[in-house]
DNA sequence: TACCGT
DNA sequence: AACGGT
């Protein structure tokens, strides 16, 4: 594996597990089995390592989301795929990460902001429009407002004052919000199709 | 690996 | 004191 990729993979693992601040450049060098000098030949500073690591992680997320059942091939199947994505994505994520990045790594935070605006929001809007066309979501919801609300609710669980990690875990929170969001926009047909699809999925995966 | 500055 | 950076 390329040195650069090895550094990024090591950093990704450590950042996800422990957050960005408590993982030192010495830790990453030691765990990657290289010297700090090698890291600084590939990355100008920690700021850039954090940026490149999460840039890489977001690209992986996009690829994984593209492998889910496509929105165009079935909104309901896609929804069940999304719940699985949520379980994986937030399951191994230290709850402090987003706050640390927002406070101490502003360029990386901007990367997340751009990702939300350019990718997440568009995906949600596509899902809402398709779901309305298919009669799964109520026609009267305002796509733009509800898409923005959905995106922000995914972010505010990272506020440790509102949602202390000691009391809530990220996966349970995200799944609870997702279910609540869906039941707020489902038609009767949508609700039934979703529950049926979820049961089918669970039967096949037990 | 040792070292310096913050 | 610990950690980024040389």
Automatic annotation (TrEMBL):
DNA-binding region: 24-43
Domain HTH tetR-type as annotated: residue spans: 1-61
Keywords: DNA-binding
Source organism superkingdom: Bacteria
Annotated protein name in UniProt: Mycofactocin system transcriptional regulator
Lineage of the organism: Bacteria, Pseudomonadati, Bacteroidota, Cytophagia, Cytophagales
InterPro entries in the cross-refs: Homeodomain-like_sf, HTH-type_TetR-like_transc_reg, HTH_TetR, Tet_transcr_reg_TetR-rel_C_sf
Transmembrane regions: none
Molecular function via GO: DNA binding
Family annotation (Pfam families): TetR_N (PF00440)
């Amino acid at each position: 594996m390329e040195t650069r990729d090895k550094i990024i993979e090591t950093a990704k693992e450590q950042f996800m597990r422990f957050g960005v601040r408590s993982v030192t450049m010495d830790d990453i060098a030691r765990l990657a089995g290289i010297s700090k000098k090698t890291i600084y030949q590939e990355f100008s500073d920690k700021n850039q390592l954090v940026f490149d690591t999460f840039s890489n992680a977001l690209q992986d997320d996009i690829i994984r989301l593209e492998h889910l059942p496509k929105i165009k091939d079935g909104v309901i199947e896609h929804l069940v795929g999304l719940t699985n994505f949520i379980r994986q994505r937030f399951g191994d994520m230290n709850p402090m990460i987003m706050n640390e990045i927002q406070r101490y790594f502003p360029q990386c935070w901007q990367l997340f902001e751009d990702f939300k605006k350019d990718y997440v929001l568009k995906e949600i809007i596509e899902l809402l429009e398709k779901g309305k066309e298919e009669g799964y979501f109520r026609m009267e919801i305002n796509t733009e407002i509800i898409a923005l609300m959905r995106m922000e609710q995914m972010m505010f669980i990272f506020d440790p004052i509102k949602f202390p990690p000691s009391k809530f875990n990220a996966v349970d929170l995200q799944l609870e919000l997702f279910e609540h969001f869906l039941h707020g926009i489902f038609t009767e047909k949508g609700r039934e199709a979703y529950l049926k699809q979820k049961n089918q999925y669970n039967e096949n995966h037990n």
